[in-house]
């Protein structure tokens, strides 16, 4: 038995600690949350609906809000320059 429930997307990537703390300051619970954010990456790319679940980047669109799935996260979360919280689900 695992002590931690794995993310719903097994290809998910961990969100850097300073962004986790930022989300808590913006009103996200410390555990058991799903957040929809807008992220700006260091190369200028903008992701409007970044789905973060319990500190893991699990999807790049709102289609990742339901069910278990596999979606490749095609960027390194350490390259996030700006993160804006849009909604906590």
Q: What would you report as the Rg, rounded to the nearest angstrom?
A: 12 Å
Order of SSEs, N→C?
EHEEEE
Through-space gap between termini: 27 Å
Mean pLDDT: 90
Question: SS-based structural class?
Answer: mainly beta
Helix run count: 1
**Strand content of the residues, in percent?**
25-35%
The best one-word shape is globular
How can the largest sheet be summarized? 5 strands, antiparallel
Task: Tell me briefly what this model is.
The protein is mainly beta. It is built from one helix and five strands; from the N terminus they run βαββββ.
Overview of the molecule:
The structure is a single chain. Helix content is 10%, strand content 35%. It is built from one helix and five strands. The protein has one helix spanning 17-25; strands spanning 13-14, 34-41, 46-53, 56-59, 80-88. It has a five-stranded antiparallel sheet, with no helix packed on it. The longest helix has 9 residues, at 17-25. The chain is globular.
Helix-strand blueprint:
Blueprint: E1 13-14, H1 17-25, E2 34-41, E3 46-53, E4 56-59, E5 80-88
Antiparallel strand pairs: 1-4, 2-3, 2-5, 3-4
């Amino acid at each position: 038995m695992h002590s931690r429930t794995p993310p719903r997307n097994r290809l998910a990537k961990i969100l850097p600690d300073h962004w986790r703390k930022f989300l808590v300051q913006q009103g996200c619970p410390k555990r058991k949350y799903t957040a929809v954010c807008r992220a700006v990456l260091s190369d200028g790319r903008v992701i409007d609906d970044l789905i973060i679940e319990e500190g893991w980047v699990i999807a790049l669109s709102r289609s990742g809000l339901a069910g278990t799935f596999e979606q490749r996260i095609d960027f390194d979360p350490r390259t996030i320059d700006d993160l804006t919280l849009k909604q906590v689900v």
